[in-house]
Specification:
By secondary structure, this protein is of the alpha+beta class. Helix content is 20%, strand content 37%.
């Protein structure tokens, strides 16, 4: 099993959720986060003062999938989240040793 952690633009969340739903991915965790990379933030004027905002709003999406579906899920996220501009985000993949469904006690991929 693999855990996919994707940092994406907030406006692309619905597109990514739809793409994952079409693949049969049933569960995900979504968090509002702030960060920056190559985008480096932006400058704005507030009450005559120049303010540099380095942290930009992003969405962190976490999904655990079977190793067999990994490439398909990653391709789907990239396709749905891509705008070809700085700030599109990143995807990180982690190994998951086990998963347990609390309600039933199922282990492994059955718990997904």
């Amino acid at each position: 099993m693999k855990k996919i952690e994707a940092i994406i633009r907030p406006e692309k969340l619905n597109d990514v959720k739809s793409a994952l739903s079409n693949l049969g991915v049933n569960g995900m965790t979504v968090s509002n986060v702030s960060g920056f990379g190559n985008q480096k933030g932006y400058t704005q004027i507030y009450r005559g003062q120049e303010i540099v905002t380095k942290l930009l709003p992003k969405i962190k999406l976490e999904v655990v999938v079977s190793s067999a579906k990994l490439d398909e899920v990653i391709s789907s996220i990239v396709e749905a989240a891509k705008t070809d501009k700085f700030g599109d985000g990143k995807i990180f993949i982690y190994e998951v040793a086990d998963a347990v469904r609390i309600r039933t006690g199922e282990h492994g991929e059955k718990a997904l």
